[in-house]
Write a structure and sequence with these properties.
single chain; 223 residues; alpha/beta; D-Maltodextrin-Binding Protein, domain 2; six-stranded mixed sheet; five-stranded mixed sheet; binds 1-O-pyrophosphono-5-O-phosphono-alpha-D-ribofuranose
């Protein structure tokens, strides 16, 4: 049996992904050591390999088949536009892609003015403004702390992720329009999907069951 390789986006999502994998009996003890400088981890028994990469690189590894399966945010999938299959919503890492800015920018959007849009996600922003809204805008690519842009006058609005909304609130900005909801997704290499169909289908079935079970428990706690 050959190894199935997983690419996980570093950070918040990776931790939650490993927790979910544990519930279906997929563990990787080596990966939990915070002092380790190792880049790739193996579960010999199940013939699985795992590695962590920068989130935006996950779809690249999966498209080229260097990883069979990836776990990454929907935002990254949309932005990277790689030839991969998105097969499962893991239901965590929930947030929204939004157009945000000061209240005064609302009328610029309303009147379809030629505004500047700062974002880490130029493809998502382009698709939203050009294809969905038919509004011509100037897109300015930034690499982080996007909320700064309208504050210092680099742009009128931003397209960015909103989770709790506290970054916006603390900086006098607000959600002006919602682009789409986001969460962590499982992606698969199309060739792996065909060649390892049975193993991958079983894994996805188990994961799906675990996700539903987790959601059921969360609902129970709420009520
Ligand atoms: C993200 C996003 C917002 C913030 C939203 O940034 O770009 O800045 O989180 O979260 P909130 O609604 O809960 O405040 P991240 O922390 O990933 O860093 P970045 O600014 O470098 O992109």
């Amino acid at each position: 049996m050959r190894y199935l390789t997983f690419a996980l986006g570093k950070g918040r999502l990776a931790k939650k992904t490993l927790e979910l994998f544990e519930t279906i009996g997929i563990t990787c003890e080596e990966m939990k050591d915070p002092d380790s400088r190792k880049l790739i981890f193996v579960n010999e028994e199940l013939k699985l390999k795992f590695f962590l990469s920068k989130g935006p690189d996950v779809p690249t590894y999966v498209e080229y088949g260097a990883a069979d399966i990836g776990v990454v945010g929907k935002d990254t999938i949309m932005e990277e536009q790689r030839k991969i299959y998105e097969v499962l919503d893991l239901g965590f890492g929930k947030c929204r892609m939004c157009v945000c800015g000061p209240e005064s920018a609302a009328r610029l959007l309303e009147h379809q003015e030629l505004i500047r849009v700062a974002t880490k996600y130029p493809n998502i922003a382009k698709d939203y403004f050009y294809n969905q809204k038919n509004q011509t805008v100037e897109i300015i690519k930034l690499n982080g702390s996007i909320e700064l842009a309208p504050i210092v006058g680099l742009s009128e609005v931003i397209v960015d992720i909103v989770e709790t909304g506290s970054t916006l609130r603390e900086n006098g900005l607000m959600v002006l329009e919602e682009v789409c909801p986001l969460s962590a997704r499982v992606v698969v290499n199309p060739v792996s999907m065909r060649m390892e169909n049975e193993r991958i289908a079983k894994l996805l079935k188990d994961l799906n069951r675990a996700v539903l079970e987790k959601e059921r428990k969360e609902k129970e706690c709420e009520s």
